[in-house]
Amino acid sequence: MARRTRLPRFTVPTLDPKEGAQVAEVLQERVHALNDLALTLKHVHWNVVGPHFIAVHEMLDPQVEAVRGFVDETAERIATLGSPVRGTPGALVKERSWDDYSIGRGDAIAHLGALDLVYQGVVSGHREAAEAVEEADPVSNDMLIGHLHSLEQFHWFIRAHLENASGSLVTEQERTERDAAREAGAEELTDEETKVGAVSTDES
Questions:
Q1: Counting C-beta atoms within 10 Å of the first and last residue's C-beta, which end of the chain has fewer, N or C?
Q2: 108-135: b or e for each residue (b if 16 or more CB lie within 10 Å)?
Q3: From the CA atom positions of the chain, what is the Rg in Å?
Q4: What secondary structure, in 3-state letters, does 90-123 show?
Q5: Per the record, where are the segments of Basic and acidic residues compositional bias (predicted)?
């Protein structure tokens, strides 16, 4: 979400304040996306049930910790560029372009179906951000690419549970979390297992 911000009084060498503010604003959106991802992964960690519970429950915590580290690194880069970091829950909800994760208590594989879409959004957003800052700030570009190494691996961990023997994803045609969860879990989701809204595949 584009915002007009006050120019910083200083930024890193070779960038002028306007360039520094522009890079910082790109990174601010990634702080929101990563904070949201960490909370979503923890929410799933607490709400998975079924035969695959322990595998998924234990797989997600290392992802949460890594993503929290990415948040801190990105926020500190914003500060290095001379801009303030907006790290409150209110700022995240106000400025994000996606809805809350829409699955409550549910089957572990159903949750992974929904998380496939979540990761699609986060990875796509990170790639776009890396491209947007590449020319102006190769340091921020390098940081985002470093995150992508892990984010794309985590996405693979999710998708490996959804892939069939022919290499197709059971969720590949789905565009909402609820539909992806239903397709992956091969069962109807009850009202108690969902919340209103579905995340956009453009971002998460």
A1: N
A2: bbbbbbbbbbbbbbbbebbeebbebbee
A3: 18
A4: HHHHHHCCCCCCCECCEEHHHHHHHHHHHHHHHH
A5: 172-185
pLDDT (mean) for 72-96 = 97
Higher pLDDT, residue 87 or 190: 87
Q: Alpha helices of the chain — where are they, by DSSP H?
A: 17-47, 53-80, 89-95, 108-133, 138-160, 177-185
Q: Are 158 and 171 a contacting pair, CB within 8 Å?
A: no
CA gap 9, 12 in Å, rounded: 11
* Location of structure tokens 């998975």: 48
CA distance 181 to 171: 8
| Rounded Cα gap, residues 20 and 81, in angstroms | 6
What is the domain partition of the chain in residue ranges?
17-193
Cross-strand pairs, 107: 49
Question: Mean pLDDT score of the chain, rounded to an integer?
Answer: 88
Calculate mean pLDDT across residues 29-39. 98
pLDDT for 203: 55
CA 180 – CA 121 distance, rounded (Å): 14
Domain 17-193 has CATH 3.40.190.100: no
Asked if residue 82 has pLDDT above 80, the reply is yes
Quick count: other Cβ atoms within 10 Å of Cβ 6? 9
